[in-house]
Design brief:
The chain is an alpha/beta fold. It has two domains: 14-247, Type I PLP-dependent aspartate aminotransferase-like (Major domain) (Aspartate Aminotransferase, domain 2), CATH 3.40.640; 252-342, Aspartate Aminotransferase, domain 1 (Alpha-Beta Complex). The chain is 38% helix and 16% strand. The chain has helices spanning 16-23, 36-48, 60-71, 85-88, 93-98, 150-162, 174-181, 186-189, 215-227, 236-248, 253-267, 296-305, 328-342; strands at 4-5, 53-57, 77-81, 101-105, 131-137, 166-170, 194-198, 209-213, 273-274, 284-289, 308-309, 311-312, 318-321. The strands form three sheets. It has a seven-stranded mixed sheet with strand order 2-8-7-6-5-3-4, sandwiched between helices. The protein has a four-stranded antiparallel sheet with strand order 9-10-13-12, with helices on one face. The longest helix has 15 residues, at 253-267. It is globular. The two termini are 34 Å apart.
Length: 351
Amino acid sequence: MPMIDLRSDTVTLPSPAMREAMAHAELGDDVYGEDPTVNRLEALAAERVGKQAAVLVPSGTMGNLCALLAHCGRGDEAIVGDQSHIYHYEAGGGSALGGVVYRVVPTRPDGTLPIEQLVARDSHDQHSAATRLICLENTHNRSGGVVLPSTYMRQVKERADDGGLALHLDGARVFNAAVALGVDVRAITEHVDSVTFCLSKGLAAPVGSLLCGGEGFIARARRARKQLGGGMRQAGIIAAAGIVALEEMVERLAEDHRTARVLAEGLARFPQIQLDLATVQTNIVYFQLRGTDLSVPELIAGLRERGVLVGASYGGKLRAVTHYGITIGDIEEVLEGVRDVLNVTTLSVER
């Protein structure tokens, strides 16, 4: 039985156009700068987000790490949110490999960080780490895939400029944010000095992310990529799928947002499930069990038996992510599976 996999949008499979492009990609040695397909992708990515240059990396985690290493020296400080991907899910790479000190500030439910806390330490105090960087995340994963407003991004950029700090955006799903806001992605990225975005999530490429920024910054980031073992050779095979992703897969992200909304509204009707519909702004749905003896592992196992995969997250939450290949029909099957596992015969009319 084929599985309906909602664990993440990283499980997407490449489109037929991507497979065709990969099979016929013009190749060269990227470490020498001679892979024409990689060069084309990097130029396209930089143009799309309004930056001077870009570098292809295997993953968003490596992209964020290269950004930290390019912005900060050993012993320098980066401000990150306590619910950020950089802080929770990237193995402390900035600290372990770059000697970067994380100053962790609270994340509000809407994914924003308190602007009054985004300040540099006194540069004349020899006891303090020198603050160099602020990191934001848009969309914000652990807040439910919510979108940070462009007005907020601008305010943080103004605060960063006032303090002489750089601003990096973990934009793994920044194109989801742009589609949700109905704006060109540059309306978001114009407010940051650097941005990482993933090709291998909603854009459905099999592998790869781009780190974009100024030419000097990208030169430093490219060196960091080499130090991390991320130099690739005939990487045009990867880049070819990435070009298709940027040219053909951005607008269709709206479909994922619609299927996520249908899923969330369906789940919200079960009295044993609690979720906040206000956070379902893109393709991520977080929900919890309530008023039932059924455990999270039991629900996950029961759904797996019925051909549905969802992920367990932090704080007893479950996560379902819609993506390329998931249809409204699939969502209907998911809801039937949930109903079956919960043994619910009637739905609550009101929340």
